[in-house]
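Issue 218. Parser rejects a valid record. Input:
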Amino acid sequence: MIFNIIAKEILTLIKTMKVVITVIVIFSLFIINAVVSVKNYKEQVLNRDEINIKTSQSLEENSDQLVNLVYVKQQLIKDVPQYLFLSEASEDVIPNGLELTYFTKSLPQYYKFQNPFYNTYSAIDWSFIILFVVSFFCIVLSYDAFSGEKENGTLKLMLSNSISHWKIIIGKFGGIFSIITLSVLAGVLINLIIINISSTIPMNASDIPVIALFLLGSILFIAFNILITFWVSCITKKSSVSLTIILTIWIVLNIVFPNIAWLFAEQFHPVPSFSQVTEKEKYETEQIYKEKNYSTEMNSSWIGRAPNESLLSRVKGINEKVKIHNYLWEDYYNQMVEQTNIAINLCKLSPSSVYRFFNEALSYNGYYGYLLFHEQALVYQSTYQQFINMKDNQDNQSFHLIWQEHKSFVKHFMSSKPVDFNSIPRFENHHPSIMFKLANYNMSNLAILFLWTFICFIGTFISFNKYDIR
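Output the parser choked on:
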C-alpha cells in the first residue's frame, strides 16, 4: 500500500510544471557550479603559487647571512580549498593568510586578486543549492500535501479506505523525497563528471567519503524540509495558509535567525577595537619599562665588544615588548574566534544553519579552514625560531643575542654566517582527515539534523492523527 501511495504521488507530481521547473533549475545550478568552480580553482592556485614563490625567493635571497633570515617577512597563504564546489564557505571574504617574521605575526590577511565587486555575489556551491534552492522546492512540492487534498476532498476519500495515517505520511513523503533526491543525485553526478573532465580540481577515490557525507547530510536536510512542510499542512485548513506559514518559517530559519544570532553574539561577547588593543599595548609596555627599569641607551661603540649590562638590559626590554605585543594580538585573535564560535552555536538552533556549517566543516573551507591554517602557522613560526636559534648557537663567534632592533646593529651580536637554503623550514598547510572532521564537527551536526527530522516526523504524525478532514 505504501508503494502504491508513493507511485501515485510521483505520477501526480511529474505531470505538473512544478517538478519540471524543479529538475531544470537543480540541473542548471549544478552545471553552473562545476564551470565556475573550475575557473575559481585555477585563479586561486595561481594566486597561491605566486605568493609562495615570492616567499621562497625572499628566503633564498636572505640566506647569505643568518641574521637576514630573522628579518624576512614571510607571506603564508592557506592552501587552495579542494572542495570549493561543495561549500565555498565565504572564501571570497574570509582571510586566507598572514605575514610573519622571527618575532611576530600579523592578524589574518587577505591575499587575493579577484574583482572585489564580483566577489560580492553569493557563490552557487552545492551547499547553497541545497540550502536555499532545493529546500524552497521542498516547500513548493509539499505545502498542499494534506491541506490541498482536504480542499479537494481526496483526503477524506483516501482515509475512507482504512489506510493507516502513518502509511499516508510515508507514502506522500516517499514520493516527494524520491523526486527531489534523485534530481540532486543526478545533478551531483553531472557536476562531478564536468569537474573530472576539466582535470583542474584533483579528485580521486579518497574523496568518496566526503561526497558520501555531504549526500547523507543533504538527505537529512531535504527530509527535514519536507516533513516540517507536512507538519504545517496538517495544522491548516487551506493550502494558501500552509504556503504562507511555511514560507515565513523558511525565511526565519534561513535568513532572519542566523543574522540575529550574529548580532546577539556581538552584544554577548564584544571584541575590543583595534585602537583599544593598540592603546593597551602602549600602556603595558610603558608599565613594564617603569617596573623593570629597562635601559633605552644605544651606543655604536658597543659594536665589536662583548655585550655590557646596558645592552643586555635594552635587549631584555625590547624582547619583553615583543612578548606583550604577541600576547595582546593573539588574545585579540582568540576573542574574535570566541565571538564567532558563539555566533555559530547560536545559529545552530536553526537546522538550516546546522546544515550550512556541516558542509563548511566537511569541506574545511572558510572559517574552519582558516582556524586550522592559523594553528599550523603558529607551529611553523616556532619551528622557524628554533631553526634560527640552533644555527646561531652553532656559531662560536656569535654573542647569541637576537632581538627586534635595527638589523645593521643586531648583526654584530648574532651569527652572520650563510645558511643552506634547502635546510630552511618551509610552511605546509596540511588538510585534516575525514575522521578528524567527523570527530570534531560532523557527527554532532548529523545528530542535530537527524533530531530535527525526527521531531518534524512526530509532529506531522500527531497533527495528522488529530486533523479534521471534514
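Fixed in the parser; the record now loads. The chain has 15 helices and two strands.
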